[in-house]
UniProtKB/TrEMBL annotation:
<feature type="domain" description="Polysaccharide export protein N-terminal">
    <location>
        <begin position="38"/>
        <end position="123"/>
    </location>
</feature>
<dbReference type="InterPro" id="IPR058781">
    <property type="entry name" value="HH_AprE-like"/>
</dbReference>
<dbReference type="Pfam" id="PF02563">
    <property type="entry name" value="Poly_export"/>
</dbReference>
<protein>
    <submittedName>
        <fullName>Polysaccharide biosynthesis/export family protein</fullName>
    </submittedName>
</protein>
<dbReference type="InterPro" id="IPR049712">
    <property type="entry name" value="Poly_export"/>
</dbReference>
<dbReference type="Pfam" id="PF25994">
    <property type="entry name" value="HH_AprE"/>
</dbReference>
<dbReference type="InterPro" id="IPR003715">
    <property type="entry name" value="Poly_export_N"/>
</dbReference>
<keyword id="KW-0732">Signal</keyword>
<feature type="domain" description="AprE-like long alpha-helical hairpin">
    <location>
        <begin position="179"/>
        <end position="361"/>
    </location>
</feature>
<feature type="signal peptide">
    <location>
        <begin position="1"/>
        <end position="38"/>
    </location>
</feature>
Length: 421
């Protein structure tokens, strides 16, 4: 293109007169190209702009393309676009023509150009619209020129399509299933509570609770809890019997030690008697000193044996006391465990009762809703549309119809009311 203009410029004054209108026509085409005319639309945040800048150089008779400045830009949250060399330029609230004029002026001032560059600003993508209310898929959608309220609703899948009958049936079935599970759990808890009460009272059998009367699976639940109770009682009995056997064994050991101590004591008395005789004979020179030393050693061994017997007897008594304490702790732990299990069962029963009541309430509500919907079949729905649009920096809501034009950044609201036929 630059070569073309240079060749035309070199042909003379008459030819140059033909080039000037052509160049201005090209610049005008850049300035007004786009989905909408610049003066018809005011830019806003999230608009995406495509900027092209060209300069007609009078001296050379050619067009200079400013590719460093040209490109795609988005209006940021501050309402500005950021261009190379030029920095940030305010765009929100302005038309594309005003932005293009400002770009040309700033470039001429910044680079000291003789001729003002011509900037083309077109909207590459409009800021989105938003759809909310009684539609199938509310959310954010891309704007296209010529959009109306009805077209916007089609983007969101149209009006919401409720299935009240199916929803009521589904809610009822879900609540009924939850109630069945809760009833089965309640029956198990009642059987468990009856078993715990029997264990605490020391009974051998479980008294059937009144709440389980007439329930088919009550016998099976009570049989299972009875088997568990027998197993637990057997384990406790075995543990207590083991402690009792240990105490019996220790008492037998103490008796044996006592008999052994008596025997040792009699032997010690005999040795002491012999010791006195040996002492007398030794003093008279009738016995040797080795005999005296031997009997002293015998007395020491007997005394040490008696001391060992006393120590073993004392330890056996300590073990008996420990076994008795273990028996007491076992019974106390067992009672505490039963009390804690009963407390937990009572709490679970309360929670179960609340949940069961909620499920039954939901079932009743579903039945009532079914009746209400049968009555509401005689009613008609009225649809109203509204657009929330930013005007002078403030959001304003206005009631519209299906054919009202939608602008970029609008929020389309859909509401449904009920009126009697």
């Amino acid at each position: 293109m630059r070569t073309f203009f240079r060749r035309r410029a070199s042909t003379g004054t008459g030819s140059r007169a033909l080039v000037w209108p052509l160049a201005f026509s090209l610049c005008a085409a850049f300035a007004f190209h786009g989905p909408v005319r610049a003066e018809e639309y005011h830019l806003g945040v999230m608009d995406k702009l495509r900027v092209r800048v060209a300069e007609w150089q009078t001296a050379e008779g050619a067009v200079r393309d400013w590719s460093a400045v040209s490109g795609d830009y988005t209006v940021g949250a501050s309402g500005k676009i950021s261009l190379p060399f030029l920095g940030e330029l305010a765009a929100s609230g302005k038309t594309a023509e005003e932005v293009s004029a400002e770009i040309g002026e700033k470039m001429q001032q910044l680079f000291g150009l003789r001729d003002r560059p011509s900037a083309s600003v077109e909207i590459a993508q409009y800021r989105p619209i938003y759809i909310s209310g009684e539609i199938q898929s509310p959310g954010q959608y891309a704007y296209v020129p010529g959009m109306t309220v009805l077209k916007a609703l089609s983007l969101g899948g149209g009006m919401r399509r409720p299935d009240p009958g199916q929803r009521v049936a589904r809610d009822y079935i879900r609540s009924e299933g939850d109630a069945s599970v809760l009833i089965a759990e309640r029956n198990r808890l009642l059987a468990r509570r009856a078993r715990l009460q029997a264990e605490i009272s020391g009974k051998d059998s479980i008294s059937p609770p009144k709440e389980l009367e007439g329930i088919s699976e009550a016998d099976q639940l009570l049989a299972s809890e009875t088997a568990l109770m027998k197993s637990r009682n057997k384990r406790l009995t075995l543990q207590l019997q083991a402690l009792a056997d240990l105490k019996t064994l220790l008492n037998s050991e103490i008796e044996s030690l006592a008999k052994k101590a008596d025997t040792q004591s009699r032997q010690l008395e005999l040795v002491q008697s012999d010791r006195e005789k040996v002492y007398n004979l030794t003093e008279k020179g009738l016995a040797v000193s080795s005999r005296r030393l031997s009997i002293e050693q015998q007395m020491t061994d007997l005394q040490a044996g008696l001391l060992d017997i006393d120590t073993a007897s004392l330890k056996a008594r300590q073990d008996i006391n420990k076994a008795g304490q273990d028996e007491t702790n076992l019974r106390n732990d067992w009672d505490a465990q039963l009390a804690q299990e009963l407390q937990n069962t009572e709490r679970e029963l309360e929670t179960n009762t609340l949940k069961l009541g909620t499920s039954r309430d939901l079932m009743s509500e579903a039945l009532m809703q079914s009746a209400v919907e049968a009555t509401s079949a005689k009613e008609t729905a009225t649809v109203t549309y509204a657009i929330v649009r930013e005007v002078d920096g403030k959001a304003r809501e206005m009631t519209v119809d299906e054919n009202t034009a939608v602008l970029p950044g609008d929020v389309v609201k859909v509401s449904v009311g009920v009126a009697m036929r």
